[in-house]
């Protein structure tokens, strides 16, 4: 085991070092494929899902950015495999986004040595010489001081070793994300390139943009270039199937991967399940309504910290996860209709948009009642980081670092 952090790479610059760094908003597309679904948390056997077809189809539909994490089980490996089997697609044709710092459900290591090891491992799994954007993963689980250390190391890897191009943070509590972004700017004089928020701009919860001093406003004032909205289906909560509220032990429902780990309380699960019936009565699927509402409303509301289209127009960027070709096609269909409205400026008069707004505002929000905008604690009560102090910064002797040093002549 080792805790060494080597010096900067010498010799020929890597692609990340050689490439210019325009604002991230000009690099990212407005729709990003999230691959958290390439994971046992969402499907019983990720290896049997059509991940190759999902990735190749996404590219054919013009989705050119992929979001993953080493915490998502085999996600990085599956994504890397799928991309490597598309030799006709150059590395410059897509954007790779991953995370670092979260090891297991209750284990985090934000030390420089671990952050560097995690980045090198991601490079290997994704078959690439550089990463486009790296977040600190679920940063509310560690101290602000640890987040600052990790951000500084990611920037060192960007500036001295050319292993990545942009740096951000991700997490669940939006007020915490805003406070950390403010802290990073104050302590370093440099704002974060990106913040990834999840589950906070959906038909159930709009906390990311609520209030005069909303987290979105604070993030923008802290200089964050792009704020991305993820988990618009509430990590499976806002689906026709829903998540069992309190399944009987040994029942089929109790075997649901989502039921086992999803942090939502039973009351929220029950309230969310009602929304599927409302959608069905309107001859809609809950997924379609939830996707369309979030894509369209965030494109508008999130534009203040959105991605920049070729026309110069900014729109809120969204990360969408799918586990089948059908889910991908559904998402693309809704997004294309949103894009068409944005291009023509006819969103306010779109019959489809008006129907979705009516269903959400007049029927779904009243049905949610007290559960609208409800959030769970993250971390939960009594959380303890199970990464022992003496193990922080200790990296596996698995050849990842040695292999990199051999290639770079360190």
Task: List strands and helices in order, with pairings.
Elements: H1 15-18, E1 31-34, H2 51-60, E2 65-67, H3 75-84, E3 95-100, E4 102-104, E5 107-108, H4 112-125, E6 131-136, H5 144-159, E7 164-171, H6 174-188, E8 194-198, H7 215-221, E9 226-230, H8 257-261, H9 266-281, H10 286-301, E10 307-308, E11 314-315, E12 317-321, H11 325-344, H12 351-368, H13 400-408
Parallel strand pairs: 1-2, 1-12, 2-3, 3-6, 6-7, 7-8, 8-9, 9-12
Antiparallel strand pairs: 4-5, 10-11
Region (Disordered): 1-23, 243-265
Pfam family, one: Aldo_ket_red
Organism: Immersiella caudata
Number of strands: 12
Radius of gyration: 21 Å
Quickly give the CATH architecture. Alpha-Beta Barrel
Work out the helicity level.
25-40%
Biggest sheet, strands in spatial order? Answer: 1-2-3-6-7-8-9-12
Topology pattern, helix = H, strand = E: HEHEHEEEHEHEHEHEHHHEEEHHH
Instruction: Pick out the low-confidence regions.
Output: 5-12
Oligomer: single chain
- Structural domain count: 1
Distance between the termini: 18 Å
Q: For the report, how would you describe the main beta sheet?
A: 8 strands, parallel, barrel
Instruction: Assign the CATH class.
Output: Alpha Beta
Which range does the strand content fall in?
5-15%
Shape: globular
Per DSSP, the total helix count is 13
Structural class: alpha/beta
GO molecular function, one term: D-arabinose 1-dehydrogenase [NAD(P)+] activity
Pfam families: Aldo_ket_red
InterPro entries: AKR (IPR020471), Ara2-like (IPR044480), NAD(P)_OxRdtase_dom_sf (IPR036812), NADP_OxRdtase_dom (IPR023210)
Keywords: Oxidoreductase
């Amino acid at each position: 085991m080792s805790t060494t952090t080597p010096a900067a790479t010498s010799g020929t610059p890597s692609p990340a070092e050689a490439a210019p760094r325009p604002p991230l908003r000009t690099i990212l597309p407005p729709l990003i494929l999230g691959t958290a679904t390439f994971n046992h948390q969402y499907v019983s056997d990720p290896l049997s899902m059509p991940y190759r077809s999902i990735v190749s189809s996404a590219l054919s539909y013009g989705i050119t950015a992929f979001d993953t994490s080493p915490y998502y089980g085999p996600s990085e490996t599956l994504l890397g495999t799928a991309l490597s089997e598309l030799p006709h697609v150059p590395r410059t044709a897509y954007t790779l986004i991953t995370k670092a710092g979260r090891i297991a459900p209750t284990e985090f290591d934000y030390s420089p040595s671990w952050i560097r090891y995690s980045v090198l491992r991601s490079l290997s799994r994704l078959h690439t010489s550089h990463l486009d954007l790296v977040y600190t993963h679920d940063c509310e689980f560690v101290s602000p001081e640890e987040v600052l250390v990790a951000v500084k190391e990611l920037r060192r890897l960007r500036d001295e070793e050319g292993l990545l191009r942009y740096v951000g943070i991700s997490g669940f509590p939006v007020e915490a994300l805003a406070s950390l972004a403010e802290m990073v700017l104050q302590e370093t004089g440099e704002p974060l390139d990106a913040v990834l928020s999840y589950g906070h701009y959906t038909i159930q919860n709009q906390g990311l943009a609520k209030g005069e001093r909303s987290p979105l406003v604070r993030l923008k004032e802290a200089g964050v270039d792009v704020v991305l909205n993820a988990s618009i289906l509430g990590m499976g909560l806002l689906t026709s199937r829903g998540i069992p509220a309190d399944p009987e032990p040994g029942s089929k429902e109790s075997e649901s991967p989502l039921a086992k780990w999803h942090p939502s309380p039973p009351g929220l699960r029950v309230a969310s399940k009602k929304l599927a019936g409302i959608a069905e009565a309107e001859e809609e699927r809950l997924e379609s309504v939830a996707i369309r509402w979030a894509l369209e409303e965030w494109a508008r509301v999130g534009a203040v910290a959105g991605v920049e289209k070729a026309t110069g127009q900014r729109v809120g960027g969204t990360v969408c996860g799918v586990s089948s070709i059908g889910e991908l096609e559904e998402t693309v269909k809704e997004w294309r209709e949103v894009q068409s409205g944005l291009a023509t400026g006819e969103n306010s008069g779109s019959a489809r948009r008006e129907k979705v707004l009516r269903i959400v505002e007049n029927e779904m929000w009243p049905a949610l009642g007290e559960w609208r905008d409800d959030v769970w604690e993250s971390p939960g009560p009594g959380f303890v980081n199970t990464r022992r102090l003496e193990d922080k910064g200790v990296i596996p002797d698995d050849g990842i670092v040695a292999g990199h040093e051999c290639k770079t002549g360190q």
